[in-house]
Amino acid sequence: MSDHELRVSKIRDGTVIDHVEAGQALNVLAILGIDGSEGFGVSVGMNVPSDRLGRKDIVKVEDRELSQSEVDVLSLIAPEATINIVRDFEVVEKNRVTRPDGVTGVLSCPNRNCITNADEPIETRFDVVADGVRCDYCATILRADIAEHIDV
Ligand code: CTP
C-alpha cells in the first residue's frame, strides 16, 4: 500500500504488529494487557486491505517493545503476524512470529478442577497442538478463546 493510502499514521518509536488476522486486533491488545489507561499511543487498524491476507488488522504501540512471552502468545492468535520495531520512524527490526512448542506461565486453565487452579505453587503449561493449546496437567484444550485466558 502506498504512503498516501495509509490508514494508520506512521509512528516514531515503538512496535508495529502487522499482518494480524482480521478480527484479532482487540485480542492482540488483550494479550499485551493494553486498555489505553497506560498512557502510550496505540493505533488500531481493522480490515485493512492486504496483498497477502486479503484483509488484515494492524496494531501500533508507541514507546513499547514486546516480551518473548507476549510474542509467543500472539503467535497463537496471529500466526502470520510480523513484529516491526520502529526507532526514529525507521523499521530497525522485523520478525515473523514463530509458533512455540508450548507456553509456560502465561495462560490460565479454564478447568476449575485443574491442579493449576488449586492454590499450589505450579506454573501453568500448555502445549501447542494442531487445533489450539492443551493444558499439560489436565489436557483441557483452549481454542478460539485463548485471549480470554491470558495471565501476563
Ligand atoms: N510503520 C509505521 N511507522 C513507521 C514505519 C513503519 O507504522 N515509522 C509500519 C508500516 O505502516 C507497516 C509496518 O510498520 O505497516 C512495516 O513497515 P515496512 O517494513 O516499511 O512496510 P512493508 O515493507 O510493507 O512491510 P512488510 O514487508 O512486512 O509487509
Automatic annotation (TrEMBL):
The keyword Metal-binding applies. The gene is pyrI. InterPro entries: Asp_carbamoyltransf_reg_N, Asp_carbamoylTrfase_reg, Asp_carbamoyltrfase_reg_C, Asp_carbatrfase_reg_C_sf, Asp_carbatrfase_reg_N_sf. It comes from Halorubrum xinjiangense. Residues 6-97 form the Aspartate carbamoyltransferase regulatory subunit N-terminal domain. Its cofactor is Zn(2+). Binds 1 zinc ion per subunit. Involved in allosteric regulation of aspartate carbamoyltransferase. SUPFAM superfamilies: Aspartate carbamoyltransferase, Regulatory-chain, C-terminal domain (SSF57825), Aspartate carbamoyltransferase, Regulatory-chain, N-terminal domain (SSF54893). Gene3D superfamilies: Aspartate carbamoyltransferase regulatory subunit, C-terminal domain, Aspartate carbamoyltransferase regulatory subunit, N-terminal domain. Keywords: Metal-binding, Pyrimidine biosynthesis, Transferase, Zinc. It holds the Pfam family PyrI. GO terms for cellular component: aspartate carbamoyltransferase complex. Zn(2+) binds at C109, C114, C135, C138. Contains catalytic and regulatory chains. Residues 103-145 form the Aspartate carbamoyltransferase regulatory subunit C-terminal domain. This is Aspartate carbamoyltransferase regulatory chain. One of its GO terms (molecular function) is transferase activity. Belongs to the PyrI family. One of its GO terms (biological process) is 'de novo' pyrimidine nucleobase biosynthetic process.
